[in-house]
Amino acid sequence: MATSNWARALAALALLAAAPATAREREGQVALTFDDLPALTIESNQGYIDDLNRDLLRKLRENHVPAIGFVNESKAEGAEHDRQVDNLKRWLDAGMLLGNHTFSHSSPNSLGAAAYAADIERGERITRPLMKAHGKKLRWFRHPYLEAGSPLAVRDWINRWLRDHGYRVAPVTIDAEDWEFAEPYDDAIAKHDVARQARIRQTYLAYTAMRIKWSQESAKALFGRDIAHVMLLHCTRLNADTLDALLKLLRAARLRPVTIDQAMRDRAYRTRDTYAEKDGVTWLERWAATLGKTLPSEGDEDPPAEIQAEYDRVDNDRVSPQNK
């Protein structure tokens, strides 16, 4: 993004943060979803992972915000198995839901349909019993990378398998690419670079404000109105540290956090979807492709170049980011 554009985005962020609360009857809805539990981080210290989960959940509860966390059970393997499972229990103890994000965070494009289904099934061995112990049923599934299967026959086979096994796919309509900011933020914390941490937080919030607006304008282009949104986030130190500010952005955008079940009652989610390309995209883009409609170009931008460069220095996995 050009410097002038980012100056405007930062100015808009300041205005959003100062905006007054809007009357309840004018509010829209948004479901907050957090991928890659127990955590997305480059930090291997288990205490760091435990703390970010505690802090994120504390802020969600303090703000009376419901959320769902999508689990990669491969992250609970190894010497820290018990503590990683404890983090999943923390989510349920806090009143949140858990969903399946596959065992290994692999794509159907690389595994093929049958192996992908096996990876989904393997990804519920811990989560399903935990949900049952808390009186809840494991029902929600999130595709890694938002890649749902290609070509159409493969996508449809996967969808049938998910339905037959009691799963419903969690869509995404707001995606601020938070994973790309999160790893440089971890790195800044590890290096005790407070100024860099502040810069990343500010840039992330400005980018997120822009993406929220793009999603709302895109919904209007498709449906003539805003819809109940589903926001993709990740379980990261960055989101734990910025959650209060993120919630201010949502309030300024007249979006009230609700459960994913509440958001999915919006009739927009019954829209026909024939998208079956390999690239994972938001549901707004899937619907636009199906309906032959064009989405706004303003705000449809990648994260700023300096963040991409920092991410590349920390994690050289840009072609297929490990935990997107």
From TrEMBL:
One GO MF term attached to the UniProt entry: hydrolase activity, acting on carbon-nitrogen (but not peptide) bonds
BP GO annotations: carbohydrate metabolic process
Lineage: superkingdom: Bacteria
Role: Is involved in generating a small heat-stable compound (Nod), an acylated oligomer of N-acetylglucosamine, that stimulates mitosis in various plant protoplasts.
One GO cellular component term noted in the UniProt record for this chain: membrane
UniProt-recorded name of the protein: Chitooligosaccharide deacetylase
Residues in the signal sequence: 1-23
InterPro entries cross-referenced by the UniProt entry: Glyco_hydro/deAcase_b/a-brl, NODB_dom, Polysacc_deacetylase_ArnD
Residue stretches making up the NodB homology domain: 26-148
Gene3D superfamilies reported in the protein's UniProt record: Glycoside hydrolase/deacetylase
UniProt keyword terms in alphabetical order: Hydrolase, Metal-binding, Signal
Keyword Signal attributed: yes
Region (Disordered), start-end ranges: 294-324
PANTHER family (alphabetical): CHITIN DEACETYLASE 1-RELATED, GLYCOSYL TRANSFERASE-RELATED
